[in-house]
Amino acid sequence: MTPEVKQRIEQIRQGIVPKGYKKTKTDIVPADWKESPIGEYIREYTEKTTIPNQYPVLTSARTGLMLQTDYYSNRQVTTEDNVGYNILPYGYITFRSRSDDGRFRFNENRIIERGVISYFYPVFSFSEEVCHEYMLYLLNFSIYRRMYPYAEGTAQQVLSLKKLGQLKYSLPLVAEQKKIAEILSTQDKAIKLQERKIEELKRFKKGCLEKMFPRKGQKVPEKRFPGFTGDWEQRKLGDIGKARSGVGFPDAEQGGVTGIPFFKVSDMNLDGNESEMTVANNYVTAEQIAVHRWSPITELPAIFFAKVGAAVMLNRKRLCRFPFLLDNNTMAYSLSSTKWDADFAKALFGTVDLTSLVQVGALPSYNAGDVESMEIYLPSLLEQEQIGGFFKQLDNLITLHQRKLDEMKKQKKALMQLLLTGIVRVRL
Question: What tens digit of pLDDT does each residue of 368-398 get?
């Protein structure tokens, strides 16, 4: 970022209008940008279905537009009596007009020639007076917060196309819009390419897990490193380790930044915890531990996972190499140091389906005894080290690509903030 841009950002932050800019009721924007209601450029499309399932049914979600059969795992939930539903042609835009949090996602049909969408999803296009791609970036990433006052309702907010059209915003000339959209589109293509790389690596890992661990009913895997023969040993997890549930974590004790990590399920989502638990949102001191008589997990390494609630069904596990505490929605399985290689254990647990232990009830759950009763097959420590080392390298590669992706997304977000507000102008 140039000193000129930094100065402009600081001026605008302070409410100072830089040279070549003007102040509107809501913004400081380039002097040549025109403020207009968004509705001036919206063209509603109102064609409806006349017969059931006239076209494939679509779902517009925050992750994008997709066939409803893909969104709901090969089942269509929309009633077959979908006469009167909106038709969404290729290149047209839709959004769910009802939101529980006031956030609306606008998606363009780029997948099929014509599709069917619920009448809760308005369909429209933009006039030739604006750049179609630019307006999509604007709606989804720049002015979405300004839609809140135009949405009606309390528990569930409703944003009609008419109300959306009343929102005013300053736009550059079409030529500048197209240039900005081109720059952001290039960023999107690079991000999608990086996402594909990660998905390919994950598919490769999944294939390796299937081939390098014994299938059900087998005592040896399909693929082995050279020099290893003989059956793997069948063992119960309780014979070669110990499962332990977490404890209650009072709100008053949370928020600490020093001491031993106190893990929750949500900590698995933190940067750096993609495969191993390295950071936490909460830490507790030795004094807190003594007062509450907590017993940190010191039998290490250990595998950390959810034991109750919806998170159980995600079947996620993480390796822990350092002492920690865990809350009562989670569980840890401590590995016997004489029987396990830590990296092998992490890979093996990637093949273990903990959801098979779920007890019937209001909430998915299982207990320590359920985990310890599970049977697995275990090779020699030497073979474990070979397998564990292989998957450790693979996990490190996936993590490296994921961090690159995260950085690319941050850069794109920063770029959008500069370009869509006019803080940085493009050369035409």
Answer: 999 999 999 999 999 999 999 999 999 999 9
Which residue has 């993609």 as its token pair? 274
Q: Into how many domains does the chain fold?
A: 3
Q: Which residue range(s) make up the domain with 427?
A: 174-232+383-428
Task: Tell me 48's DSSP state.
Answer: B
Same domain, 131 and 251: no
Place of tokens 């254990």: 345
DSSP E strand boundaries for 246-388: 260-263, 283-284, 302-306, 317-320, 325-326, 330-335, 375-378
Task: Residue 115: name the closest of 61, 68, 79, 76 by CA.
Answer: 68
Separation between Cα atoms, residue 18 and residue 2, nearest integer Å:
15
pLDDT tens, position by position, 45-97:
999 999 888 888 888 888 889 888 776 655 555 556 788 899 999 999 999 99
Q: What's the CA dihedral at 308, 312, 318, 321 to 10 degrees?
A: 20
d(CA 276, CA 301): 11
Rounded Cα distance, 36 and 422, in Å: 16
Token pair recorded at residue 422? 């006019």
Q: Across-strand partners of 324?
A: 297
Cβ atoms within 10 Å of 367's Cβ, excluding its own: 15
Long-range pairs of 8-16 with CB within 8 A, sequence gap ≥ 24: 8/423, 9/423, 12/423
Quote the pTM value: 0.82
DSSP state of 355: G
According to DSSP, residue 215 is labeled P
Same-domain status, 159 and 219: no
428 alpha-carbon distance from chain centroid: 36
